[in-house]
Amino acid sequence: MKQSMRILIPFDGSASSLSVIDEAARRPWPLGTRLLILGVAEMPSTLMSGPIPMPGSYYQEWEKALEDQARANVELALQRLIARGVAEEMIETLTLKGNAKEAIIDEAGKFGADLIMIGTHGYNALERLWLGSVSRTVATHAGCSVEIVRGTAEREDEAPEKRRMKLLVAVDGSPSGDAAVGEVASREWPEGSEVRVITAIHLPFAPAPETWVLPDEFYEVAERHSREQAEITHQRAAKIIAEGNTGRAVPLDFSSEVILGHAEEVILATAREWPADLILLGSHGHRAWERFILGSVSQAVAWHAPCSVAIVRSTQGVR
């Protein structure tokens, strides 16, 4: 189990960022964990492309208003965490000027963050554009794990046994998938939480009536082999979770399933049907090809999931 964590929470005062604060307050964190609330004042450009430029004092007043708002937002987040039972000594606050995407990523590195918890504004086209411009950039380029938090209903009066979480972990036999399982095993979760590990099997070719296609036996053998490899991966995941359970008063309940279909479709369908509270996916890295993989599966899941999504990186922030 992790001895402590460093959590960075960007906060802009929006409903989605309030949901992040509430979710962070609900989670159990190990002793010694630090929460950094980051407010970023995005400065307006002093250049004016229109025919009527504004006086310089206008921009100075605008900048001051944005800085004041960023500080007020951070104070709001601080007081909300404290009101929800988070110890004040766990919390740090910081307000910066600059580009939000760059500030979040840079400060996460300086802080040595293990996890960035960031909100998303929703599902429609404009809101997905925001996800693309901030959350997607952070999820792709941050040097630590990133959780994109989707808002849930207020549960302040909910009984502890109802705060348990359903954690859906998608694995593909790669080290990044193992890292996602390890993240679950090494962290504290509400008592009674469940872990479901799934692997999607997508055959490279589908049977067709044309005479030139491979024989049906090929697909049967390919599927059988894929399922055998997935079972090995799930056995490894079960062992990792079992080892993590040795340090828990109430062990995580574990189950696994191999499902035929495209990865993103399988993950999203399972998340809706179970239903999951959090999907955890491994990130293959930061190189261009690996960022494409993040875009093709993890991004699709992050955009369309009915719940929060965590992109797990095995290389965490450096203290």
Structural account:
- α2 links the parallel β2 (34-41) and β3.
- This protein has helices at residues 15-26, 56-83, 100-111, 125-141, 175-186, 216-245, 263-273, 288-304; strands at residues 6-10, 34-41, 91-97, 115-119, 145-149, 166-170, 194-201, 253-260, 278-282, 308-312.
- With 319 residues, the chain is α/β, with parallel strands linked by helices.
- It folds into two domains: 1-45 and 57-157, HUPs (Rossmann fold); 161-319, HUPs (Rossmann fold, 3-Layer(aba) Sandwich), CATH 3.40.50.620.
- The chain has a ten-stranded mixed beta sheet, with helices on both faces.
- 44% of the residues lie in helices and 19% in strands.
Key terms:
319 residues; alpha/beta; Rossmann fold; 2 domains; 10-stranded mixed sheet; 8 helices; globular
Tell me the span between the first and last alpha carbons. Answer: 18 Å
CATH level-four homologous superfamily name of the largest domain = HUPs
Which secondary-structure class do the elements indicate?
alpha/beta
- Mean pLDDT, all residues: 84
Strand percentage: 15-25%
Proportion in helices: 40-55%
Number of helices: 8
Q: What is the global morphology?
A: globular
Helices and strands in order:
Elements: E1 6-10, H1 15-26, E2 34-41, H2 56-83, E3 91-97, H3 100-111, E4 115-119, H4 125-141, E5 145-149, E6 166-170, H5 175-186, E7 194-201, H6 216-245, E8 253-260, H7 263-273, E9 278-282, H8 288-304, E10 308-312
Parallel strand pairs: 1-2, 1-4, 2-3, 4-5, 6-7, 6-9, 7-8, 9-10
Antiparallel strand pairs: 5-10
Helix pairs in contact: 3-4, 4-8, 5-6, 7-8
